[in-house]
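Hi R.,

Here's the input for the cytidine-5'-triphosphate complex you asked about:
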Amino acid sequence: MIAGKRVLLVISGGIAAYKSLELIRRVRERGGDVRCILTSGGAEFVTPLSVAALSENKVYGDLFSLTDEAEMGHIRLSREADLLVVAPASADLMAKMATGRADDLASTALLATDKRVLIAPAMNVRMWEHPATQANLATLRAQGVLTVGPNAGDMACGEYGPGRMAEPAEILAAIDSFFAAGARLSGRRALVTSGPTYEAIDPVRYLANRSSGRQGHAIALALSRLGAETTLVTGPTRLADPAGVDVVHIESAEEMLAACRTALPADVAVCAAAVADWRVAKTSGQKLKKNGTAPKLALTTNPDILANLAAAGNSRPRLVVGFAAETENLIAHATAKLTSKGCDWIVANDVSPGTGTFGGEENSVHVIDAAGVDSWPRLSKDDVAARLAARIADHLAGASVTGSAS
Ligand code: CTP
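And here is the predicted structure with cytidine-5'-triphosphate in place:
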């Protein structure tokens, strides 16, 4: 899977940098091309000469930045790769990545890239366990950064615990599975809706709901990880845009529908947004003033985006997946939505108070299709997303076999 792929390897400062030389050798053995950026910290541990000799490519680093910029800008360098690998990823470089700093070639390339990034952290155990590093890690993961390691063990500094960089063979396996997984939906287009919608009352007030967008964003990321060209149409959330996904930000249901139509054609559409069912019939151009009597808001029904996509005729995605948020009679209500919305699958979730699903980290879902109900155990929303993306990949693979036979 690595053969023919281009890896941009960032080697930052740390004793584990010597293992990156072995990594370069192994990627090259598998037929991959490796270009390296050696940070000034990294160059304290391994020499540009050994990196250049093993990669059989010019080494990029701040020492050479003037000529590097002339020959190949940091943007081209990061975009021409199929995957960026940071090994070792120091605590400092992770902090820079999480905060979007770009004060050297490595951090600039990492900020400018439109490709996925895999990091192999390596640092002292206390640095690794520090809440600041863990918060940076969470931020990076939410943005779609992949991680391998660190492992626990004796450390060069004499302490014991997690912080040792993963072994070259483990990093190689992570690179391999990235390229293997990435192929499953390559060439496919996916459309995902996420988050709440805001329906204006007047220029400052709106009607909304408590959707966090976590599940929808996680699905967009999971589909893109499998190689799908993914558009995420999202209402306002507090979440970072997932890496590698084309994100369209909207506020109202009508804007969401328009953005979804623009995003077609797609092979699969997943409607995870908690679209407001109603909007204010006549929004006020000016802020409503208190005048002693409370205003009566007349509501009108919003377009149903899922039903619209399912009835899009020639532009209908081959697979249309809806969600059903129910507080009672989960399976019966969700199954009824399969018909009323005209979609192929419904992912049913119980959003009763006390389940913690709405706005929470976990979800227990039942995937309902014409064949019946597939109940999954309670999982993190990321795991639900990964499992759903895999099910979609299986389905589309089957569908294309049927399609080509007919
Ligand atoms: N949906 C949509 N557009 C709407 C309303 C819902 O696309 N205007 C989609 C949601 O994204 C979800 C599915 O329809 O995939 C079901 O949403 P849900 O809120 O469970 O159901 P509703 O259609 O709103 O029906 P009800 O509120 O009566 O349960």
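One thing worth noting: The chain has a mean pLDDT of 91.

Cheers,
M.
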